[in-house]
């Protein structure tokens, strides 16, 4: 019989990101990020939504910490916004910005919640984008300066520093494609961004270590792809989507097959002597974000695809994404809990030396979330599809643990309904409902279900 109880020491958490929840876009010395620019550009986001206010956590952070404490999480994964900390090009560190994050971190610790801090969750300062952004090698060095400033202030109060969140999205959706900021649509011209993100990871890791040594853990979060279907197509996308990050970060090289399949579209001359030694830095844990799988087939299509988020990775122009069977979320993503198990096993088998954590998993439930009023006047949000989704994915994670994976933490995405990037406020991932008119927070049924799971350290069975 499959286990339903998590091992001693396993940690539970939930997660958010700065631009998605904070608001306060022009307060406290903050200056624009690429997402401010992108979301204020007509036609880039649904309904023209922006993160100007979002969940207003910049002002309501104490309320959110209280919700986390009531939930009972062991850890909270938040991100720091570089435009709050280094708001001007070459200017001084903004102490007011660091003060904000220090208050949040100290409040979490006072509630017995350990902070996991993501240093870069996509909100690159616009002043860096104006100089080329991730296409410019210097951006990696500026991110290292920033990482060192944050680590110097927050120190060992942060349990885990995560350098980057989903560099796949930063490079492939923002530079190869047009779905994310800055939305350049460069196709294979995005490979320099891939390398500079890898370089930034290594430099940031060194900057953090210089400030905190081994007192805090160091990680990176990758949205690794787990694909099914044609073996050649799956292998190709593993190289472009996964090993392009994993091998330099954990092994110190780019796979030769990656150079082979990108011959003719990229010469990789932007990789300089010594870069790979800089990129490969000792990590304590690897974060994995997981939502769905894809079904692939090889194609003779000659053009570089520009239309779908899944197919914007350079070198993927001869791969087709096929319709996936079964139920799908409100994002159109298939629900495949076994994919989480398979992905965890795959990473564990290929990189057995690195412990793992699920840094994001959750769903925008098909059918949406709606507030109901109970007879006693209290408000509720019934989201059985989200509970079912989470239950099945926690079961998959527990099965992976039983089969030998060193999985240590699981962060549910997301704590709050929030600004869902180009989808604006039309997709709700939160276990807490956000009323975007009043900014009221209403815990959903999934919040109460998760609270019980955390309290019991076991998956509720009914």
Question: Key features?
Answer:
alpha/beta; 15% strand; three-stranded mixed β-sheet; 462 residues; TIM Barrel
How is this structure best described in words?
This is Beta-glucosidase. The chain has 462 residues and is α/β, with parallel strands linked by helices. It has a single domain (11-456), classed as TIM Barrel, CATH 3.20.20.80. Helices cover 38% and strands 15% of the residues. The strands form 4 sheets. An 8-stranded parallel β-barrel has the order 1-2-3-4-5-7-10-13, surrounded by 4 helices. A hairpin with a 6-residue loop joins strand 14 (432-434) and strand 15. Helix 7 packs parallel to helix 9 (191-212), helix 8 packs antiparallel against helix 9 (191-212) and helix 9 packs parallel to helix 10. The two termini are 16 Å apart. Mean pLDDT is 95; it is low at 302-309.
Main pleated sheet:
8 strands, parallel, barrel
**How many domains?**
1
CATH superfamily: Glycosidases
Provide the CATH top-level class: Alpha Beta
State the helicity in percent bands.
Answer: 25-40%
Assembly classification:
single chain
Category from helices, strands and their pairing? alpha/beta
Strand content: 15-25%
- Count the strands? 15
Predict the CATH topology: TIM Barrel
| Unreliable residue stretches | 302-309
Question: N- to C-terminal separation?
Answer: 16 Å
Mean pLDDT over all positions: 95
| Pattern of helices and strands | EHHHEHHEHHEHHEEHHHEEEHEEEHEEEH
Q: What's the architecture, going by CATH?
A: Alpha-Beta Barrel
The count of helical stretches stands at 15
What is the overall silhouette?
globular
Q: Strands of the biggest beta sheet: in what spatial order?
A: 1-2-3-4-5-7-10-13
Radius of gyration: 21 Å
